[in-house]
Amino acid sequence: MTDIDWNDYSVETQAIRAGHQRTHEGEHSMSIYMTSSYVFNSAEEAALRFSRQQPGNIYSRFTNPTVDTFQKRLALMEQGDRCLAFASGMAAIMAIGMSLLKAGDHVVCSRSVFGNTVLTFENYFAKFGVTTTFVELSNLDAWAAEIQPNTQLLFVETPSNPLMELVDIRGLADIAHQQDCLLVVDNVFCTPIMQKPLALGADIVVHSATKYIDGHGRGVGGAVIASEEIIEQSIYPYLRTGGATMSAFNAWVFLSGLETLAVRMKAHCDSAFELAKWLEQQPAVEKVHYPGLESHAQHELARQQQSHFGGVVSFELKGGKEQAWKLINATQMLSITANLGDVKSTITHPASTTHGRLAPEVRLQAGIKESLVRVSVGLENIDDIKQDLLYGLIL
Question: Which residues are CB-neighbours of 163 under 8 A, at least 6 positions away?
């Protein structure tokens, strides 16, 4: 299998077979290499490995065969040169900042990103003299207006968490490159099955593998995909030194998740679309946020740059926070948890969980109201999901 060019194959096939080099044992499933270190045949070979004059494993903080297979597979699926795996999605975002930013640099970031992403820029990168301006995700003019001579990165999550807002990736990439900036896209909601930001002009893609890539709520991990130049010159040295490493076991878990990603994403999207249409008909619901609906402001953009509309639905209830909590507490089957992308449907109140550490005015600027509920639609029967929500909707 080592002589196969996996670029000639579809993303569904890549997700199942790419990157695996069988050992002399002939294993059909990927092995877990649970080792911290590797033995060299001689002092000379060790020196060549450590100086990177000879390829091969050195230490599992930055070289491990199981992790390497996951990296190769995800890079192919995202149509990128190279991928590096990290201990979590937030560790991956931290790696981008620590690798590519320095004191005096500036970042333009969407207001509509995960709460901890906001805090990473505001509370931690700011300590090292990096400033961040937050803008409306879909407004390309606002992005262009906020770019400064010292701006290095534009950072977006599209679709966004939790309002499922979008930005024109190709249009934003053009703006970034005109000003010699790099565009970073968090692709966690779409995965490479639904959207390929690098093909649309983005420079870096970041993932929380904890979500759909795993798909079963088992492990925590992250990934960065970019050009060979960006990875080799900037991000790999940070990983090797900083050590925010994905474990071999978690990489093995995520490889298993990738094998079923395509079929799971289609099922998630089909059920989420049906749920979104059903929620629009419920008297207790004020507004539904889902790109598949014609009522969504970026519905046509979603049709252009995504193959499906996603597995997450958020909606606002009449009655504010009290009604939102009543609905959540009335569910009997759905899991009350802030995680998403699981085969099990989950429900949460973003204003008090995923975005709860943000100041109230910051949440409002991002459109996250107290009445908002987010559902990550799993693979249960869609009628059972509707019924579970109905208990709270008719209270």
Answer: 112, 289, 314, 366, 367, 368, 372
CATH code of 312's domain: 3.90.1150.10
Q: Is 175 helix (H, G, I), strand (E, B) or coil?
A: helix
d(CA 372, CA 9): 41
> Which amino acid is present at 174?
D
Whether residues 80 and 199 share a domain: the answer is yes
The whole-angstrom separation of Cα 247 and Cα 254 is: 11
Range of the domain at 358: 262-393
- CATH assignment of the domain containing 243: 3.40.640.10
Nearest to residue 318, comparing CAs of 392, 256, 267? 392
Give 355-364 pLDDT, tens digit per residue: 877 778 878 7
What pLDDT, in 10s, does the model give residues 303-312? Answer: 999 999 999 9
pLDDT exceeding 90 applies to what percent of the chain?
88
Note whether residue 2 is domain-resident.
no
Number of Cβ within a 10 Å radius of residue 298: 19
Q: Is the peptide bond before 159 cis (omega within 30 degrees of 0)?
A: yes
pLDDT digits (tens, 9 = 90+) for 86-118: 999 999 999 999 999 999 999 999 998 988 899
